[in-house]
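RETRY 2/3 - previous attempt timed out on the joint model. Re-submitting the same 1148-residue input unchanged.
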Amino acid sequence: MKIVVATSSVPFIRGGAEILADNLRDALSAAGHEAELVSIPFKHYPPERIPEHILACRLVDLTETCGVRIDRVIGLKFPAYLIPHPNKVIWLLHQHRTAYELWSHPRAGDLIQGPDGPVIRDAIRQADRELIPEAKAIYTLSENVSGRLRRYSGIDSKPLYNPPAHERLFYCGPAGDYLFFPSRITGVKRQWLAIRALAQCRERVRIRFAGDPDNPMQQEECVNIARELKLSDRIAWLGMVSEEQKRDLYAKCRGVIFPPVDEDYGYVTLEAMLSSKPVITCADSGGPLEFVMDHQTGLVAHPTPESLAQAMDALWADRRSAAAMGEAGRARYRDLNISWPNVVEKLLC
Amino acid sequence: MLKINWFSPLPPAQSGIAHFAMQVLPVLARRQEVVLWTDQHQVAPEVQRIARVTRYSPAAPPWREINDGTISVYHLGNHPDFHAGIWQVSVRQPGIIVLHDLCLHDFFFRVWVHSGKDRASYLAALERWYGGEGRQAGEAFCAGGISAEAMAQRFPLTRQSIQGALGVITHSRGALEELGESSGCPATALDFPYADTAESRYREWTAGRNASPHPPYRLVIFGHLGRNRRLGAVLEALAGLDEREQFRLDIYGQLWDESHIRMEIERLGLSLLVNLHGFVPDSQVEEKLSTAHLAINLRYPSMGEASLSQLQFCDYAVPTLVTRTGWYASLPEDTTAFVRPEHEVEDIQAHLRAFLADPGSFYAMGERGRRSLINHDPGRYVDAMLQFASEALRLSPRVPALTLARSVGADLTAWLHPAAGPYLLERASKEIFTMFGGEAGKTGL
Amino acid sequence: MPKNHALRILIATVRVPFVNGGAEILAEGLRRVLIEAGHRAEIVAIPFKWYPPERILDQMLACRLLDLSETFEVPVDRLIGLKFPAYMIPHQRKVIWMLHQHRQAYDLWQHPLSDLHTYANGSEVRAAIHRADTELIPQAQGIFTISRNVALRMKSHCGVNAIPLYHPPQDAALFYTRPAENFLYFPSRINPLKRQELVLQALAQTRAPVRVYFSGSATEAAFERKCITLAQKGGCADRVQWLGSVSEEQKRDLYARSLGVLFPPVDEDYGYVTLEGMLAQKPVITCTDSGGPLEFVVDQRTGVIAEPKPEALAAAMDRLWGDRERARQWGEAGRQRYDDLHIHWDNVLEKLLQ
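RETRY 2/3 succeeded.
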């Protein structure tokens, strides 16, 4: 089959969604299909840009190429998943979140800050409601995303889990003296929460952050918080690291700390499990909660510095328990049967 | 569940709309959550008891807080003091506009030219809605060559106030008809809300009046008295009446041109019959009405909207004289006496004579007026308003759809060959319709 | 421009899904050199389908709706537009480096290989493309093309003055030369516009036993069959080799060992083949109507510019075949000319980023 994977992206930003799109394309090729990635650039501000970009996507024609039919389009992100095609399957990574569950979020809510926010929000919801059902089948990244889609748009969908990149290359090493927090530095990932929790830890917990900020100011903010709280020596900012370095950091950490707010999915959780490391997450973290089992494969804290600090201390203090939880995490991953062949099969049937 | 952001003048603002708000808000606040937004320096304590009052600065509205509400309701009228701030917010965030006056030329002139020193916007608006003719008239008006009434009559600029709105509420069917298709958004006419006085109190009150059913009969006029209140015609009519000694005329309210009126009264020899009392606060209006035999509530040209004072007269069963125009023309025939705009003096005199001949018939008319107030029950008004607002909210994606259509249209003009215009405009239009609902034909491309 | 100032640059082009050609190679090449020069560069490729004609209008509008001015409040310093309609994406600091306009609306209008004119709304869409190009191309801060040929076309189509900006073929540094063997080399997609057909007709008329190696995949099966039949009918099938798709390495090897390069396309935009031949120090035979190659080949000095007729081409081929020494000299002169032209990515960057 000739398949186009259609996604939206912001130039110069490479995050989980971009990696997933590439992985999907590769998995489709590996399964013997001709697969290509089409990525439409998307800028979400000022708010009136959003309807413009939706319209741009609606004007794209992926029905055929040089007289040969494109058999299937797989739409991943808003607004590219609205590109019309008679044989489209949506694998929804997420909708435009600040029009939905992040509408009034104190840090992430952007539409709510402006006068045209409400009408644009309603327009986005309308477009999703009208046009998502055009797809022949609708899958999502996780139960969390399916739940939101049902709640806000009244649309039913099935979660379809996918493995992190290079899943076979993760490994477990002897636990070192740091917790690992790999993620884009941005409000919703809540590096700031981990830092504030660190201030309340009784143990000499250390954190290594890896990842680039969406906008340099976001990292500055975190660095300032750390400095204020006199934690600069217990925090390391590694910036963008290579895949190898990342796997090594996972392998040698004592545990992974990943407390985003309402994460769609969370490869970090899976990567930690593949590295046989326990995961500390929060009760409102979304995706990770579909994988982390409290006190079995990790710890689920309340999204407050105090509670998170307690979890961090507990993990830090009991090396054996941490290791055991890590092993349990690895076993759980196996049990979940998360594989690309499974994804391809579902998306193409 | 709706959370309403309410923008209107509030007591102690000397605006009929503030009074209107006090009729409606208690009922509304019982049905839905309401936040009252104000840019006034003061708000009366009784308002705070009805709903939370929040101050805002029109220059920088706190959108974050405003957006906690579900929908904004903006009350627009002709006085910039009360409505300039509200209008500024309404321009930036679509909401339900309640049009208390259809004729807003004066409002826009004062907001733009007087306050904002922005003649360009004023002229541009005239041109946008009325073409070159409008612009030229605007320029002539600025130079002093045309009267304000003439401008108001020919170029009311109503549509300027409602563009981009989610919905428009008027208080007269005539107003709705005048807006017609041009509103570009859902529009409706609701009966102006008015909670009539309790029966017992009313009877107490009229007992006092019925106690003095003899000359001299008190004629009253209330309100902001501009040239359209036809004072000149009333004075002339009275002066020309042989039986004028049987009447006394009390004028309560700020006069547009007091010295001129005083001169007229002198000139017509009415000094002993006519009294100018100046502004009377709401609290004293009832008392003044209690001994009134006939209220003169003429308006010409009509500024388009409902009259609170007319409903007050009905409440107290005071018979009235109104001009057969605008909202007044839709009043039930048997509840008020009509004056034709082209025969004012003649008709006023005829009615005054008829009154003298049979005062009872006028009292009966007043009673029928009171009974007609059932249509103006605030509860009914609030229910209708909420239903309209919910519906308009459901259709809200039309607003960004229109914006998108317009910006697409504007961009295309820069580079699209006319031959390809029809295809691409229709394509974009259809797609925008599919995305956001609304009527494809009305995307304005 | 301060050399150390790293810019954020987007290269805007279009992509026909599942088709990879010169445009993709160029965009990728540009991206790589920008990164090597210390900038951040990414390719934005809008999917393009040109039929039915109204789709073109849709995609023009789609491009106009995109906002590439900044990302998360960090400005995009430059937008380099390469192809229609991607160069219509609005941007304050846009530079066009035109590969070619939508030729079907211009010089290939009503050409047998075009389809735009076969549709009822073809004229209308053609007019729309003309108008859009005329209005929007001049809005760019700099207007460049890949060759003088494309610049001349632009001037005549839209009245716009554009500056040609030459760039090296892929892996220019890896080309080398070897003593000439007994074949002429013609690397190109097997396609009527490249005119393999003409070469075969010429081959049938050569006096010397000239041999030709063709490499490249066929984009049209019918044309390929036609060529094979032509070779057989012309009695030169034994002097022809169809190598199909070859690797980059094999291609460079064939250049190196050839006696000369044949490249007689019709009105080529630019023509990497010409430059590759020059890099390999080989003479190039081209035609008077070949377009791009004419900006590089100097008749009787670095190769031959022949009339696009079988006889003329045959004579040129015979000339090379009969005079190996001259062929070698012309090849060297060709290399020298390439070097004299200073075709470097540095020049390209300097102009595009000024």
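The first strand of chain A starts at residue 2 and ends at 9. Closing ticket.
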